[in-house]
Specification:
174 residues, alpha+beta, Beta-Lactamase, 2 domains, PAS protein, MCPsignal_dom, transducer, PAS_fold_3, PAS
Length: 174
């Protein structure tokens, strides 16, 4: 049986589900899974189960339930039924999924930002290294130019000395 709250949440009338197995409210992938077999093994052994469960309502609508499956034993300790208490948490699960997706997007953006920042740092580092090399080359060129200037002065001095000697030689030759 099912109470009116369950029927309203799932979108069914009692006549539509009376006599139907629990698997009618589950996705086929769940029904054929080891987890679902374990679920029934636990219930058949009188074990309590509580969790959030994804179920399928009328027209394939996804319904999330926060539910407990509570074993009820007779006076002899034999399991004779399981009572389910459930609260619909579909909206809450949807919000949690939205938050999770937003967190994933934020994480991806932060990862991309980290990569971009690292690329920017690499560009700056390469630019600094290039500027250092240019500075070193300019220093070397400057030293070379300074040495050329000194040699030019020396050559000029030598030329003047030779010029002076030549002039004295011309005077002596007269």
């Amino acid at each position: 049986t099912a109470n009116n709250n369950f029927l309203n949440v799932m979108g069914y009338a009692l006549t539509e589900i009376k006599g139907k197995h629990h698997r009618s409210f589950c996705e086929p992938t769940l029904v054929n899974s080891p987890e679902y077999a374990e679920f029934w093994r636990k219930l058949n052994h009188g074990e309590f189960i509580g969790d959030q469960f994804k179920r399928i309502g009328k027209h394939g609508r996804v319904v999330w339930l926060e539910a407990t499956y509570n074993p009820v034993h007779d006076a002899h300790g034999r399991l004779y039924k399981v009572v389910k208490f459930a609260t619909m948490v579909t909206d809450q699960v949807a919000r949690e999924e939205e938050v999770s997706q937003a967190a994933s997007v934020a994480f991806e953006i932060s990862q991309q930002t980290d990569v971009s920042a690292q690329r920017g740092a690499d560009v700056v580092q390469n630019t600094v290294q290039t500027m250092r090399k240019i500075s070193e080359e300019m220093q070397t060129a400057s030293s070379g130019i300074e040495a050329l200037g000194k040699q030019s002065l020396l050559i000029n001095s030598i030329v003047q000395t030779i010029g002076g000697i030549a002039q004295q030689t011309n005077l002596l030759a007269l």
